[in-house]
Amino acid sequence: MNAIQRAVAMLFAASTFAFAGSAEAAVMFHAYNSNGGTCAERVSGGYALKPCDKNVAAQRFTFDVNGMGGPITQSTECLVVISGYTVGSAVAGRNCTDTKNFTSKKWRWTNGTQIIATESPSQGTCLSAAGPSIPPPRLVLQACNANALLTRWDVLQ
Question: What is the rounded CA–CA span in Å between residue 117 and residue 44?
């Protein structure tokens, strides 16, 4: 059993709360760069790239890793694609019950390291991060085969 499978098994009962009325296998995860040192963290106005700390709640996201597609949540907010599915399109946090002013809030896990915008026509745009020179929200869509600043999205253990 690999680390992701163990985490899913351990967290299944405790983590389904993030999807009210659902029996999906939601797990906590954090997003970090390829060397594991910089994570996406929720800050006022969007997200920032900060040193990874598994104890920081603002760096924890909840997601169903079964590959079928669903929301990525953090408290009452969901990560949403603001408009379109082009490379560089902003991804921001919005109230999960909101149904306006964004393109999609569905994502699916693939390859254990990428999260694809499920409703993207090309299926080639993945959740990524812009560099610190870009103003918040700093989470963006990136070509899945590109060398993005944020390349790994792994389950917290």
Answer: 24
For residue 16, CA distances in Å to 3, 9, 54, 105, 154 come to 19, 12, 20, 18, 18
Pairing status of strand 125-129 against strand 77-81: unpaired
CA-only gyration radius of the chain, Å: 14
Average pLDDT, rounded, for the chain: 70
Q: Taking Cα atoms as reference points, which of 97, 93, 83 lies closest to residue 62?
A: 93
For 80, residues 6+ apart whose C-beta sits below 8 A from its C-beta are: 91, 92, 93, 94, 102, 103, 104, 105
Alpha-carbon distance 108 to 71, whole Å?
9
Contacts of 97 (CB under 8 A, 6+ apart): none
What tens digit of pLDDT does each residue of 67-108 get? Answer: 677 888 888 888 888 888 888 888 888 888 887 767 778 888
Report all structural domains of the chain as residue ranges with CATH numbers, in order of start.
3-155 (2.80.10.50)
106-134: average pLDDT: 77
Residue owning tokens 């106005």: 45
